[in-house]
# Entry
Amino acid sequence: MKYQKPKGTNDILPGESEKWQFVESTARDVLKKYDFHEVRTPMFEHIEVITRGVGESTDIVTKEMYDFKDKGDRHITLRPEGTAPLVRSYVEHKLFGPEHQNPFKAFYIGPMFRYERPQAGRLRQFNQMGIEVLGSSNPATDVEGILVALDFFKRLGVTHTQLVINSLGTRENRMVYRQALIDYLEPLSDQLSDDSKRRLHTNPLRVLDSKDKKDKEIVENAPSILDYLDEESNAFFTEVKSLLDAMGVEYVVDHRMVRGLDYYNHTVFEIMSNAPGFNGAITTICAGGRYDGLVSEFNGPDSHDSGFGFGMGIERVLITMDAEGVEIPAANNVDVYVVGLGEETNCESLKLAQAVRQAGFVCERDFLNRKAKAQFKSADKLNAKLVLIIGESELAEKVVRVKNMVTGEETTVSLDDVYTSFSNVYNNIIGE
Ligand code: ATP
Ligand code: MG
# Structure
């Protein structure tokens, strides 16, 4: 039997994992500046958390769940997204209490699971980085959330981005709009794609989001949600736009942009990439919005019922970085390589490498008892700045030869000096 990873999953291997670490550490750096704190929820949840949080009629719940009964007959699902679990946790641990940050500003980074048809940038296990702000109905929270995402992309060197925003108003506004949309679409329903026909009565807003060409033509003349906002929703959206303007953030308003998850209201946004490498195709790399009311759905207090957040697919961020030709700092370099010649140097090589690491440098050695030439080739490949050479005679004299790989110069240093003050040795040769 040939063993293979499950369909729609990835092994992230050396060479690639360094990129992940770079993206994740950049995210952590940026989030820290905004006073966001990490929450790590379980990888699986009781299924009700997701059906309640995400909504019964969404693709996630109807088609994409990795759910199962566990040995105790509990109905469990692998988490398909981060918001519902986080809100569950917020309410469960009463994080709205006076001793907690208010608004509560959380982020998560980790795998999500959706049973989808795998394609480029669409996996069954994928990774999201996301934020959630709970307990603020201030439109500045929406704008700060958007700024976090934009700041993150800037720090990664991703510049071909476009911010698209819209407002879905309140639930009441959306119910009225929903009916208007059904009234518009119904007479045209036989021209809609099968997916959209099905969604027409379960989740009609999602038809606006269809990628089908004919569907797109049909929704071209659909009524606009923006005409259905009440005064308060309008004022909120106007404030969000003027705060974005005040921050000098460019955006476009697309009244057909809705989100696939039921919980959104008021502000929704997406950040799209039109990186040159995508050849004109546009990809959503980050999506989110406001979800006032979700905390109440989980029986949390009405006083802390406001929420805003986004999620971004890390795989798509990495694809975008590739498409933009962003270079990630090489991560497999070492400072020092130990060349050991002859089996009898095995133990001393181990000690040398360890001393170098204890002094704070990155070090690798040979383990295969190879010839000098092959070991130097490895040192070159790893961009070692310094090579320590130990052979039979050096061992006998308790010294090591030290080669500056930049100038090619060689000196001899006592083992003692390496063991007591390697940083001096290094700095004398390479400079600080
Ligand atoms: P789509 O319309 O592409 O299916 P979605 O509306 O299901 O997206 P969200 O649930 O809002 O997406 O998730 C936020 C982000 O997570 C997406 O913008 C995308 O970057 C990423 N994402 C979602 N599903 C997947 C997946 N199956 N594989 C990889 N990334 C994903
Ligand atoms: Mg989806």
User: Anything to note?
Assistant: Residues 139-156 form the longest helix (18 residues). The longest strand covers residues 104-113. The pocket of adenosine-5'-triphosphate (ligand 1) is lined by residues 81, 114, 116, 121-123, 126, 128, 260, 284-285, 287, 311-313, 315-316 (CB under 6 Å). Residues 336-430 form a domain with the Rossmann fold fold (CATH 3.40.50.800).
